[in-house]
Amino acid sequence: MTTILVTGATGTLGRQVAERLRTEGADVRGLSRRSPSYAVDLREGKGLDSAVDGVDTIVHCASSPRGGDDRAAGYLIDAARRAGGPHLVYISIVGVDRVPLGYYTLKRRVEQMIEDSGLGATIQRTTQFHDLVLSVVSGAAKLPVLPVPAGVSVQPVDSGEVADRLAALALGAPAGRVPDLGGPEVREFSGLAGAYLRATGRRRRVVPVRLAGKAYAGFRGGGHLSPEHAVGTVTFEEFLARRHRRTG
């Protein structure tokens, strides 16, 4: 039986990856700060050796926009080396090498650490999740008007489809950097905000707002998009409808 460690196993993506791998018959170890079996704070690294010992593959889903991803990756890579070098699968983001956003720069640094680690590795970049777009527009909708970044398009992808891809990669051999996984449609942010308002029955005026800075310019230029890899199938409207059925 294949033994696989999933970091960030209580998160949106990690939880689904762990479920799919168990369905495939793998022995899955779920690691997170709140895990009942493998409670590890990756930014400190304590307890990693026992979690990694004897695993065939590590799927690294844990991440934090608050920082520390490179430190966490360093601890994980060192533990993997001590454990004999399991296959390391890493989830990254389309545009980390094109959009000068601090979080993206950190994700690219982790990619480079993994590429230089000497471990057998697979790196999968995806476009933004539907969940992220929903979080942004639902938060903005609390205001009297709904502001969105002017001139920015997004290519959201379903986290379940990403979980399917990561599970398949985890059960395979190291493949290096694999083709991007993009959502089915490139959409104006304002259009996605409108879809959210229609799905929730809320009334707000969508107001495009021009922002400053190199990161905003990178997003306006589409550095975070991958239209040539629009292989996802679940649209944002379908995601919203499914979520509404589940919560309703």
Automatic annotation (TrEMBL):
Residues 8-131 form the NAD(P)-binding domain. The keyword RNA-binding does not apply. The keyword Iron does not apply. Keywords: Photosynthesis, Photosystem II. InterPro entries: HCF244-like, NAD(P)-bd_dom, NAD(P)-bd_dom_sf. GO terms for biological process: photosynthesis. GO terms for cellular component: photosystem II. Signal peptide: none annotated. This is NAD(P)H-binding protein. The lineage of its organism: Bacteria, Bacillati, Actinomycetota, Actinomycetes, Kitasatosporales.
